[in-house]
Design a protein that fits this description.
The chain is of the alpha+beta class and about 260 residues long. Helix content is about 45%, strand content about 15%. Among the domains are: about 70 residues, Sandwich (Immunoglobulin-like), CATH 2.60.40; about 110 residues, no CATH class.
Length: about 260
């Protein structure tokens, strides 16, 4: 009788422990650091979920006991935290991130460049060219156009020539359209913009993404080109949050690995 009671007690304890261990809950956390704490990537490696911090470093994510959370950003060292019973009980956590220090292999003596344009110009022997600010003239203040963007603009430029009956024709624009030059230039600009977007995604998410979805390094470049070939690539990724882009990449890697398997078979 005593053995039976002990057996049921052990089974009950195992059941309770298993229930607590597998229970998924929402927790809230705050990330602190010496610099900006917005848009820190918070990854739950166990559940393959992902979120980012807000302006104050706050975040919310689903976890269960013994899950591993990874905190990643450009300016801080990678931080890995195991979800403990206390975190589960408190339903909150605070994480302090250490600055990522880039050590120099050698010390350079001479002119020091800081990365600040104004400071580097003052500390350089180079002479700054005169621009429209110096002479008080209005000028273009937007993003400088690339060579292909300038060529496309020029292909659509030109004066309208009056041909009668109140009709004006831009022969330069018409000629470029008829010869297909405008279409070709538009395609070049589109491809150029797609490449820029792809490089931005790789810079922001490549390290975090492959923590959750491991992929051999020799295949990673091919995978990203596979993503960019998707007809919805720009629609799903242009001006989107890291979470939205991450979700798109997660969908694509399933298809990519399926293609690899088919090729292997």
């Amino acid at each position: 009788m005593v053995k039976t009671k002990r057996f049921f007690l052990v089974v009950l304890c195992c059941f309770i422990f298993s229930s607590i261990y597998s229970q998924t809950i929402d927790i809230e956390g705050v990330v602190t650091g010496s610099a900006d704490v917005e848009n820190i990537h918070v990854i739950n490696k166990a559940s393959n979920t992902f979120t980012t911090t807000n302006k104050l470093g706050g975040f919310a994510i689903q976890v269960k006991l013994a899950d591993t959370l990874v905190f990643s950003s450009v300016q801080y060292k990678l931080q890995t935290i195991l979800v403990t019973p206390k975190i589960i009980s408190d339903k909150k956590m605070t994480v302090f991130l250490e600055d990522k220090v880039n050590e120099l292999g050698e010390v350079l003596v001479g002119k020091v460049l800081t990365g600040s344009l104004d400071s580097d110009i003052k500390n350089s022997d180079a002479e700054r060219p005169i621009n429209f600010y110096d002479v008080g003239l209005p000028g273009y203040k937007g993003k400088p156009k690339t060579q292909n963007e300038r060529r496309l603009y020029e292909a659509d430029a030109g004066k309208y020539v009056y041909v009668g009956l109140g009709v004006g024709l831009n022969f330069n624009k018409i000629l470029n359209k008829v010869t297909g030059r405008t279409k070709k230039l538009k395609e070049r600009v589109r491809k150029e913009n797609k490449d820029v977007l792809l490089e931005k995604i790789k810079a922001n998410l490549v390290e975090d993404f492959f923590v959750i979805y491991p992929l051999d390094e020799s295949l990673r470049t091919d995978f990203f080109y596979f993503c960019s070939d998707d007809e919805n690539f720009e629609k799903r990724c242009q001006n989107k949050s890291d979470i939205e882009v991450f979700e798109f990449l997660a969908e694509k890697i399933v298809a990519y690995k399926a293609n690899l398997k088919l090729k292997g078979d």
